[in-house]
Write the structure tokens for this entry.
Amino acid sequence: MQIKELLKLTPSEQEVTVKGWVRTKRGQVAVTFIAINDGSTIHNIQAVAEGGAIDEETLKLVSTGACVAVTGKLIASMGSGQAVELKAEKIVIYGTADESFPMQPKKHSLEFLREKAHLRFRTNTFGAIFRIRHTLAFAVHKYFNDNGFFNLHTPIITASDAEGAGEMFHVTNFDMEKPPKGDDGNIDYSQDFFGRKTSLTVSGQLEGELGALALSKIYTFGPTFRAENSNTTRHLAEFWMIEPEVAFYELEDNMNLAEDFVQYVIKYALENCADDLTFLEKRLLEEEKSKPQNERSDLSLTEKLKFVVENQFQRLTYTEAIEILVRSKPHKEKKFQYNVAWGIDLQSEHERYLVEKHFKKPVILTNYPKDIKAFYMKLDEDNKTVRAMDVLFPGIGEIIGGSQREDDYEKLLARTKEVGIDPENIWWYLETRKFGSAPHAGFGLGFERLVLFVTGMTNIRDVIPFPRTPKSAEF
Ligand code: ATP
Ligand code: MN
């Protein structure tokens, strides 16, 4: 029986068997206390082996990290800290672990645990993180399913490099030592597996739009890949993206969806991951003690989450944001590293000022200059800005990027050429604007950035089981 279920039982000396990994063993002459965890919950069950009940040879093999099955009677616990415990009658050792097992019960740095990604699941911190990650993923599907969206599986291998030219991983089955060349000396991709140059996708959006223009409401939830060499605490080379796309939605509907959706999944985690969040909240508090007073957060983790769930996001245009930034103290005192002026791509320091200092809540910025946004965003009447929206979160920065899409064939074609994309390459995308075009909008939420926010972790490498970052793809 899972420990999570077992801990809910009323003890009446019923016989149960627990299977899991030993977290600690505290031995005394007459009695041994063994804390066992099976990952179903942050809580351990305590097995008590009283003198003679278990033979000494077996008991010796019960050590931190070992995998065991303990059978015995479930009784009310004498000790504080748990309601029930297991009076051990039989222990089967599945796998031993000696003192070289790295996850000994002491404080390990997150850096150390990253190097032991194959074993870090067996710590309280990572158990909590990955249970919460699962719950959030489940909440994502639940939200969309309950609201009439269809999950669309967009391709992982793609031939369109429309979005992130230069930042894509190539997919080929050429012999890299001697790829076939054409008469011009260039690699001849027509001989490659797909008969063209292909890459791993950076976003499922373009294909998602095709689905939305028939099914009306779709969402994707899949892996995306970016070969950008940004070694930050917020970027991965492989991450999971959630991309809803909705026909007949305009920018404002899109903002409403983003806000409602994010609030729903965070609320779902608050309601279903209370134990894990309590644990991570304490962890964060400990971590913050080592920071100077002015860098510590005024709110605890759950307070922060509740705040986001209960308060409306601040909505303003890019132009209004620039005005605020220009009037701000750090700008006047030249404290920003990057200059502020209409037309710039906002830097993380600017976004954080708006969210953390000025508004002190999540912010949705809209109507960015067209030159700093993608070609498919709908042009505003002024011909200068587009119907883009970025959702910015405290401590994270951009968590969502989205827009209303250009639905006018001629305008889209013109923008495609303007930014240097060959219309031939995305003829299928353009064609949806020729046949029954409709206003539509959507956005992309980086799943790991959401998990970062909810768990209160600070490095994105700690919220995905096996991070892929520049120069790192072990495990
Ligand atoms: P950023 O400016 O932070 O690099 P972006 O503008 O490149 O983000 P989009 O292309 O709009 O991001 O992607 C949509 C969402 O995907 C972002 O809002 C973010 O949550 C997430 N995201 C983007 N790049 C990464 C990455 N390398 N690792 C993890 N999440 C990412
Ligand atoms: Mn980016």
About this structure: The chain has a mean pLDDT of 95. The two ends are 30 Å apart (CA to CA). The first strand starts at residue 15 and ends at 27. The longest helix spans residues 124-146.
